[in-house]
Amino acid sequence: MARIVYSMLTSLDGYIEGPGGNIGLPVPEGELHRHFNDEMRRTSTVLCGRRMYDAMRFWDSPERETAADEVERDFAHAWRKTPKIVFSTTLGEVGLNARPMRGDAEAVARSLKAETDGEISVGGADLAAHLARAGLIDEYRLYMHPVVLGGGKPYFQVGLSLGLEPLGTESLSQGVTLLRYAPINLAPAKGSGYK
């Protein structure tokens, strides 16, 4: 059985992007980028919302596979190799090793979790909140940058209430601290609905 992990870079004040959709977080370099490359290689499948998928399609470009930076080439290769399911009601075309899904994200995640092994990565705060309300996320990984954005899109969706148990912390390069948590109660919440 697979584990579903929600993993994102975040500011100290809990935002994954700043006001107006600006990312606002430092770009991972060298050692930190290698950490994310390793995480991508461990991922058996990526579940994405449309906005996160659109942002990550940068890595589908053939130029990423031939980039001068070896760390970027390595990530591009891992991204392209990993199967992706993209939840969207409007997206018609997806890139390499990806398939669009208009169906129920909860049902797809449950089925995938039961039928595969390894880690399933969730990309996107709205999709993660939907799966969290359904009790499907096994681990939360917050990569906290020493930056304050002052607003924007939060890692945890407004109105989402969770009990969490610490699994550990790790100091990484660029001043980033990885905080890992597991939900205490995996019982589905009422009114979960992903749009």
Automatic annotation (TrEMBL):
<dbReference type="InterPro" id="IPR050765">
    <property type="entry name" value="Riboflavin_Biosynth_HTPR"/>
</dbReference>
<feature type="domain" description="Bacterial bifunctional deaminase-reductase C-terminal">
    <location>
        <begin position="4"/>
        <end position="177"/>
    </location>
</feature>
<dbReference type="InterPro" id="IPR002734">
    <property type="entry name" value="RibDG_C"/>
</dbReference>
<dbReference type="Pfam" id="PF01872">
    <property type="entry name" value="RibD_C"/>
</dbReference>
<dbReference type="InterPro" id="IPR024072">
    <property type="entry name" value="DHFR-like_dom_sf"/>
</dbReference>
<protein>
    <submittedName>
        <fullName>Dihydrofolate reductase family protein</fullName>
    </submittedName>
</protein>
